[in-house]
């Protein structure tokens, strides 16, 4: 990341892989199964022997590492019979060599293939890394997460006995099975609150003590690491009474990454949309959508409202793009290029209400971008606010083939007619 | 009359960097009473502002202005020396929550935080700190508060506003400008326009603003602009149903936003099927709020709510 881009505003969240989340858990004394990451078949095979020798358990699990949930139930496009998480039991009868052969066969099919889950969308995500993990003798599967409750402006620790199921389903069907404790930021999750959750989860004996320690470490870790979400589903109780994170989904508040350089370094850019990544590097907020009308707007609320009005007049927006309040000419040009690079885009609607953002800056950016990359689709521009006359003059004098709009609705209707 | 800010508001700037200086200059041009700044590394210096008066602001001023603002080490010292009763924060994100808490410790009545990108955990702590204290926080990540032709605190363009009859409250910046512009064009004008910000943790919320406008004799109706994410609009609908005596019109942005994606604002996200525009619109309509179907109809919806 260049100094210039990193000085600009960064928004949203950063996701990491399961194996990275588990490494962070382990650093904080939160129990996780032993495992090794692999990006090739050879690495996957090499992980098997030390795992089995160290744990004494001949079962290993091969888990796809992508930034999306529902991996267990997901299926590979290339191998419709194959799920994203696979248990290798060959070692029970055949020893380490058999386990290695089983892992080799699976890794060969999984790596480089495309996993489709309920969260990836129909296009799926390519699996580029695997996590080879020890098998665990599971007694019970539970759920726990730490997330901000916006209505109280505090974190809550949420838990449920319904582990392994989507928590949204549990919340909708059996809300009484969701346990929550509010965390006072001045005190953290207090011991009695952690005990209360452990009781509700039915943890007894050694598992209860382990559970209390687990919950307090998790709640403190969420604050220390500036997480957006920590979700462990399932949290398992082993037959030995250990409480362990069998899965780990963690995302971080991107605005806090400045104080966590080690976490920022965990970012896997291959998991992100290239256009969204390019936008982020220019300090722009961009989300790709399925429609064919590209939008460039200043301000998140106005950008959303612009998408809405395109839809209302009968069109489909190709993207959400907020250039922000203080974008310069270069950022505007970058934004324009990102929009025009999308082959689905059949027309572009620029909607600007200049406040701090001056309309002449917007106009100069558009002209610069078109000079560089050309303009093959119709362009409708609605300018309002600071220096609007100067902005319109710059566009007029540039000789650009564009249509002026009087207001948002007029602009949306005009771009729809032209595409 | 108006709410939160007016002719008697004396504003302190926290963070006199490039951004703070730029917007302080615009505020002075508009006629806001700016009385000093806090910037620890520059304490003891004086910041000079001079230029052409923005006549869309406070009336009856000369064409040129020149103002010298003293810079202090702490908010406490600044309040003692100047009698400031409001502050505006332009401090960069890593230090902004601390600036909010410092202002609260000095018992500053109103703190308007413009800064965008403050870590959520910092705001959770800052809100905890505000509990039991007298300070009212507006923002963060907001355009600010303006009472047209009296006091402008924040980054909104002053000239689109006109003193008038409608209270405006919004989670979005540029969409507020759009709404204000429409109310200026249709002649209703604004009593006060409040940007409450697009972050998941903020200070003053819709209900606080609705309550202020309900009690303000000059405000004849309220235009509220919400967006997807959270449940602030639903809570506002409940409050309106139970308490509001004045007409309310509204607009909710994000009807077409896909679930699971943050639409620019950290707070604007549909997650777990919650926070959709449809649910918010239904709740508000149920409470008798006139909903603008498109963002170009906000002024017209306000007219309709007023029976005009």
How does this structure look, described?
- The complex is a heterodimer of chains A (419) and B (308).
- In chain A, 38% of the residues lie in helices and 24% in strands.
- With 419 residues, chain A is an alpha+beta fold.
- In chain A, strands 1, 9, 10, 11, 12, 13 and 14 form a seven-stranded antiparallel beta sheet that branches.
- In chain A, helix 3 (41-55) packs antiparallel against helix 4, helix 11 (329-340) crosses helix 12 and helix 12 runs parallel beside helix 13.
- The longest helix of chain A has 21 residues, at 90-110.
- The two termini of chain A are 37 Å apart.
- Residues 1-10 of chain A have low confidence and may be disordered.
- With 308 residues, chain B is α/β, with parallel strands linked by helices.
- Chain B has nine helices and 14 strands.
- Chain B has helices at 18-30, 75-82, 93-105, 120-130, 173-185, 206-215, 232-243, 277-286, 298-306, and strands at 10-14, 33-38, 46-52, 64-72, 86-89, 110-113, 136-138, 144-147, 151-154, 163-170, 190-195, 221-227, 248-253, 290-291.
- In chain B, the strands form two sheets. Chain B has a seven-stranded mixed beta sheet, with helices on both faces.
- In chain B, helix 5 packs across helix 9 and helix 7 (232-243) runs parallel beside helix 8 (277-286).
- Chain B starts with 9 loop residues before the first strand and ends with a helix.
- The mean pLDDT of chain B is 94.
- At the A-B interface, helix 5 and helix 10 of A face helix 4 and helix 5 of B.
Q: Tell me the number of helical segments of chain B per DSSP (H or I, 4 or more residues long).
A: 9
Structural class of chain A, please? alpha+beta
Helical content of chain A (DSSP H or I, runs of 4+)? 25-40%
Give a count of the beta strands of chain B, DSSP E runs of length 2 or more: 14
Helicity of chain B, as a percent range: 25-40%
Helix/sheet category of chain B = alpha/beta
Q: Low-confidence parts of chain A, pLDDT < 50 over ≥5 residues?
A: 1-10
Average pLDDT score of chain B: 94
Measured between the Cα atoms of the first and last residue of chain A, the distance is: 37 Å
Order of helices and strands of chain B: EHEEEHEHEHEEEEHEHEHEHEH
> What proportion of the residues of chain A form beta strands (DSSP E)?
15-25%
């Amino acid at each position: 990341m260049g100094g210039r881009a990193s000085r600009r505003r960064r928004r949203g969240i950063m996701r990491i892989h399961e194996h990275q989340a588990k490494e962070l858990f382990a650093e904080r004394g939160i129990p996780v199964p032993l495992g090794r990451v692999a990006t090739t078949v050879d690495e996957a095979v090499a992980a098997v022997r030390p795992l089995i020798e160290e744990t004494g358990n001949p079962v290993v699990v091969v888990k796809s590492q992508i930034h999306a949930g529902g991996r267990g139930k997901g299926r590979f496009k290339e191998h419709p019979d194959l799920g994203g998480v696979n248990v290798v039991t060959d070692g029970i009868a055949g020893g380490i060599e058999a386990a290695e052969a089983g892992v080799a066969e699976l890794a060969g099919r999984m790596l480089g293939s495309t996993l489709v889950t309920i969260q990836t969308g129909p296009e799926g995500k390519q699996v580029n890394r695997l996590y080879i993990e020890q098998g665990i003798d599971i007694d019970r599967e539970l759920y726990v997460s730490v997330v901000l409750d916006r209505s109280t402006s505090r974190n809550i620790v949420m838990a449920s006995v319904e582990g392994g199921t989507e928590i949204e389903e549990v919340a909708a069907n059996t809300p009484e099975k969701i346990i929550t404790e509010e965390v006072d930021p001045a005190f953290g999750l207090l011991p009695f609150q952690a005990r209360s959750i452990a009781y509700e989860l039915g943890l007894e004996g050694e598992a209860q003590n382990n559970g209390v320690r687990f919950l307090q470490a998790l709640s403190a870790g969420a604050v220390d690491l500036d997480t957006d979400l920590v979700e462990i589903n399932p949290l398992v109780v082993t037959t030995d009474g250990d409480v362990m994170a069998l899965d780990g989904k963690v995302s971080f508040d991107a605005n806090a990454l400045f104080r966590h350089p080690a976490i920022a370094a965990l970012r896997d850019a291959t998991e992100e949309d290239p256009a969204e990544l390019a936008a982020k590097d220019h300090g722009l907020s961009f989300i790709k959508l399925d429609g064919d009308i590209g939008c460039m707007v200043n301000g998140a609320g106005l950008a959303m409202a612009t998408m809405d009005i395109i839809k209302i007049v009968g069109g489909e927006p190709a993207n959400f793009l907020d250039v922000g309040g203080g974008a310069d000419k270069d950022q505007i040009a970058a934004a324009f290029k990102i929009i025009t690079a999308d082959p689905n885009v059949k027309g572009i609607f620029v909607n600007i209400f200049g406040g701090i953002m001056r309309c002449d800056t917007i106009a100069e950016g558009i002209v610069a971008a078109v000079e560089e990359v050309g303009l093959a689709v119709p362009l409708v521009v609605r300018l309002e606010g600071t220096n609007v006359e100067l902005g319109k003059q710059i566009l007029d004098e540039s000789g650009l083939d564009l249509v002026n709009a009087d207001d948002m609705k007029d602009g949306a209707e005009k771009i729809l007619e032209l595409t | 009359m108006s709410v939160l800010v007016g002719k008697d508001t004396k504003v302190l700037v926290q963070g006199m960097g490039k951004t703070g200086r730029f917007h302080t200059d615009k505020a002075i041009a508009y006629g806001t009473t700016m009385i000093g700044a806090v910037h620890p590394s520059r304490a003891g210096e004086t910041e000079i502002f001079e230029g052409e008066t923005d006549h869309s602001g406070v009336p009856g001023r000369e064409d040129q202005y020149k103002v010298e603002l003293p810079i202090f080490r702490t908010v406490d010292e600044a309040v003692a020396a100047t009698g400031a009763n409001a502050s505006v924060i332009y401090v960069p994100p890593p230090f902004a929550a601390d600036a909010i808490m410092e202002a609260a410790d000095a018992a500053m009545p109103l703190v308007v935080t413009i800064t965008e990108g403050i870590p959520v955990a910092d705001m959770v702590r800052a809100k905890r700190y505000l509990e039991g204290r007298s300070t009212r926080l507006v923002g963060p990540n907001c355009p600010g508060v303006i009472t047209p032709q009296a006091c402008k605190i924040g980054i909104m363009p002053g000239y689109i506003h006109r003193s008038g009859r409608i209270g405006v409250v919004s989670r979005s910046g540029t969409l507020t400008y759009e709404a204000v512009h429409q109310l200026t064009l249709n002649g209703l004008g604004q009593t006060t326009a409040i940007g409450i910000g697009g972050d998941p943790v903020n200070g003053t919320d819709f209900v606080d603003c609705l309550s202020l406008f309900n009690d303000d004799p000059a405000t004849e109706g309220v235009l509220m602009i919400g967006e997807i994410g959270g449940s602030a609009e639903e809570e506002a609908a409940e409050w309106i149903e139970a308490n509001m005596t004045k007409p309310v019109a509204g607009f909710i942005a994000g009807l077409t936003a896909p679930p699971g994606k943050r639409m620019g604002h950290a707070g604007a996200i549909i997650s777990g099927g919650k926070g959709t525009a449809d649910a918010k619109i239904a709740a508000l309509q149920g409470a008798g709020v006139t909903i603008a179907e498109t963002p170009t109809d906000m002024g017209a919806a306000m007219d309709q709510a007023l029976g005009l």
